[in-house]
Amino acid sequence: MLAASSFEGLWISFGEKFSGEHLGEQTNQFWHVRQSSKVNAIRTRTMIEQADLVMVL
Hints:
alpha+beta; 2 strands; 39% helix; two-stranded antiparallel ribbon; single chain
């Protein structure tokens, strides 16, 4: 889910972690967690590169 808002003319978006539900069934939990982690890393890196300002809480 990605939420967005506008505050005094600034566009603000909030993202959340990829849960891995779309990766399909895995026989081993290790691979499910590993794939989800890699997808999250790619998404995070892309969002940081495209952002003008990043706040990490």
